[in-house]
Write a structure and sequence with these properties.
The protein has about 325 residues and is α/β, with parallel strands linked by helices. It has 2 domains: about 120 residues, NAD(P)-binding Rossmann-like Domain (Rossmann fold); about 150 residues, Dihydrodipicolinate Reductase, domain 2 (2-Layer Sandwich), CATH 3.30.360. The strands form 2 sheets. An 8-stranded mixed sheet has the order 8-9-10-7-11-12-13-14, covered by helices on one side. The chain has a 6-stranded parallel sheet with strand order 3-2-1-4-5-6, sandwiched between helices. Strand 2, helix 3 and strand 3 form a beta-alpha-beta unit. It is globular and about 60 Å long.
Length: about 325
Amino acid sequence: MMEKIRWGIIGCGDVCEKKSGPAFYKIEHSALEAVMRRDEAKVKDFARRHHVLKYYTNAQDIISDPDIDAVYVATPPNTHKEYSIKAMCGGKSVYVEKPMAMNYKECLEMITVSKETGQKLFPAFYRRALPYFLKIKSLLEEKRIGKVLLVNIRHYKVPECTDFVPDKHSWRVNRQIAGEGYFYDLAPHTLDILDFLLGEIEDAKGYSANLVGLYDAKDTFTASFRFKSGVLGSGQWCFVVSTDMEQDVVELVGTEGRICFSIFSFVPVRLETGSGTEYFEFASPEHIEQPLIQTVVDELRGVGHSLSTAESGARTARVMDLILKRDMKK
């Protein structure tokens, strides 16, 4: 058993400031040894503020550092496969931001390298370890709504301010860097948590369009899908609505009731049955990825298992490809 997992971060940008970065040095048996970002002034500042002794401007320096056991890849999706494979080939296990890669084929390539090198690979689908979603899973296991029949998703979001200014567009709406815009950034969380709650999605179909034209990526999506268990689902995502139209709702309909919850706003979980309505409220952790990172550290030390695996991350990528009608053989 390893006493401590020593981490290096490739890409210490905004996501690392609070959501994930501090978890690596706050968790017991974990330490953040080095960070990397191409901008030297910014990586130096990050290292100073988070009390990290070493910083680099080249990813290979993190991968080659003998004092690092595992690497957190926190770069945009178009480099997830490259850095993850390099790190695993360099003898490091990997925790990689979501989506796991740009498509299902890339995920399979990463899994192959993980098996060949013996290095573990974990996608950052951190909702799987949050008490909010664990409660929903327990309600389902307790059959509080009977047999699950249907899933309905509605995620409508107002445009970002930068969406209206072409030369200030976020990289998240750049297809070459991030895939199909905000859908590729946000919908994987929803599809992954449904995989966690209800099992594998066997088939999916979808339509998508750019209806407003603020950026090149598509802004509106619909999908229908079927779980291996037989549960049927549908989803709508739109990222160009007005403020009063914003929604973040997932509804699980069963033979004896329904459960309603959110993916991003964490409104209280609502359970409706013939006995009445119950609400379950949970506060999010200060560092929202910390519970999952704890399970990753535990597995790397040989004392537990992560709730998010390379295989589950690849399943979510497969569903995304099916919804977007991508050729998964390319």
